[in-house]
Amino acid sequence: MEQCPMSRLIIISNRVQPPTGEGGGNQGGLAVALSAALRESSGIWFGWSGETVDEFTGKIDFQRNFGVTTATIDLEPQDLDEYYNGYANRTLWPLFHYRIDLAEFESGFAEGYERVNQRFADTLEPLIEGDDLVWVHDYHLFPLGARLREKGIRNRIGFFLHIPWPPYRLLLSLPNHRELVETLLAYDVVGFQTRDALECFHDYVRNELGGTIDGNRVTVGDHSVTAIACPIGIDADNFVEASQSAAARYAHYRMRQSTNGRDMIIGVDRLDYSKGLEERFLGYERYLSSNAGQHGEVFLLQIAPPSRGDVQSYQEIRSSLDALSGRINGAFADVEWVPIRYVNRGYPRDKLAGIYRAAKVGLVTPLRDGMNLVAKEYVAAQDPEDPGVLILSRFAGAAEQLTDALLINPHSPEDICDAIAQALAMPLEERQARWRACMDNVMSQDVVWWRKRFTDALEGAAAAAAA
Ligand code: ADQ
Fold first, then answer.
1. To test ligand 1's pocket by mutation, which of 234, 373, 400 has the most ligand atoms within 8 angstroms of CB?
2. To pair with 283 at 20 to 30 A between CA atoms, which of 58, 133, 267, 352?
3. What is the pLDDT of residues 28-41, one digit of tens each?
4. 467 domain-assigned
5. What domain range includes position 81?
6. Residue of 235, 369, 415, 418 marked catalytic
7. Do the beta carbons of residue 411 and residue 426 sit within 8 Å?
8. Model's pTM, two decimal places?
9. What DSSP element (H or E) covers 12?
10. Is 27 contained in some domain?
11. Is the complex ipTM higher than 0.90?
C-alpha cells in the first residue's frame, strides 16, 4: 500500500468523474487514480456538474459515491458558450495544439472564461481548510490559482496541464497571453506532460517575462514557482487485469472470429482534429495502394467517439472523415472485405482492452498530443508471448517515454505506410523486445507514480518556501 498524503486533497477540474463502482467500473484510469487519492485523504473533487441553469446561484451539490466526495456547481448557458465551447475549446485547445488556423479570438470568450474561473474561486473558497493541498487541472482553469490567492487562500496550490504547451512565438498570437501566463505564477507547482512542454514554458518565461530558470525553480520578479515535467501514466495493473477479464477475453474471441484470420490495425481516439485521423487514413490508403498483395489480408478498425459536437471545427472533421473512409472503402473494398471499419462510439474499458489485444498493430498518430493514453493502454493490453507493434507519432507526449515504439512523423503518409509494412512483417523476437521496453515504462511510470510525483513536489515546494 502506498503512503497516504498527510493533507486533505482538493482536486478541481472542469468536469468531475465520480467513481461508478468499487474497482472503478468503466471510469477512465485518471479518474480511478484521482478517486483513490481522494478516498485516502478524505478529499473533495470540485467542478462543473455538466448542467446549466438560467441564473448562476453558486449552490454546491455534494455527493458521496464509493468513498469519494464530489462537489459540483451548475453554470449558465452563456458560460457554456463562452468559457467551455468558447475560450477553452475554440481558443486555447487549437492554439495549444499548434492549430492557430483554427483558433478564434473573441473578447467575449475571454470574458466568459474569466467569469467562470471567478465563479469557481468564489464557490470553492469556503471549502478550503487548514493545510489542504489544492490541485487544479488543465487549460480550462489556468487563472483559478490566482483568483484563489486574491481571496486570501495561502494553501499549497498546484496546476497540471494535460495538453501541450505551445512554443513561445506561437503563444504570442494569443491576445492577453501575458496576463494568462502570469496567472501561473500564483501556483506553488506547475506540472507539464513532457520536457518539451516544460522547455517551451521556460522559453516564454525567459523571453517574454524576463524571468530566470534555476533547476526546477522559475522566478519572475519576486514570484517563484516549481515547474516540472511529470508525464501522466495509466492505471497499468488495473488495465492488465482488465485485458484478462472475461469481458476482454470474450471481446478478443469475437474480434478474432470476425477478422477471419486477417491482421487488424487498431486506432482509438476521441474524434478530434489533433488526433491526426485524416492523415492516418491517408497513410493507410497509401499502404493499400502500394501493397496490393495485402488486400483482403489486413484491415483498420478505427474507433472514434464524437466529442465537442457544438464546435464547428469538430463537425467539419467528422464529415471529412466520413467522406474519406467512404472514399477509401469505395476504392479498395470487395464483396468479402472492407479495408476500414470506422465506428463512431465508445466502448467499455474491458471490451476495449480485448480489442487492443486482438490487434497486430496499434496506430497512434496525433499531430500533437499532451501525452496520449491510448498508446500506453495498447501496450498494457498485449499478450507478452505474441505482442503487437505500436506505431506512435513523435509529436505525442508519450513518444518521450515509449522510445521503442515505431516513431513516425504523422504528417507523412509515406512514414505511416512504411511503418505499417514494417510492423506487419516484424519478427516475433523484435516485437517482444520492443514491447518489453515500452511495457517496462508503462508499468513503472503509471498513474499512481504520476500522482505521487506531483503531490510530492507540491508538499516539497511548500517545505522549501517555509524554510
Ligand atoms: P484525450 O485527448 O482525451 O486526453 P487520451 O490521452 O488518448 O486523449 O485519452 C483518451 C481516453 O479515452 C483513453 O483512456 C481511451 O481509452 C478513452 N477512449 C477513447 N476512445 C474511446 C472509446 N471509443 N471507447 C472508450 N474509451 C475511449 C487529454 C490529453 C491527452 C492526455 C490526457 C490525460 O489530450 O494528451 O494524455 O488528457 O492527461
1. 373
2. 352
3. 667 877 888 888 88
4. no
5. 9-233+447-461
6. 369
7. no
8. 0.96
9. strand 9-15
10. yes
11. yes
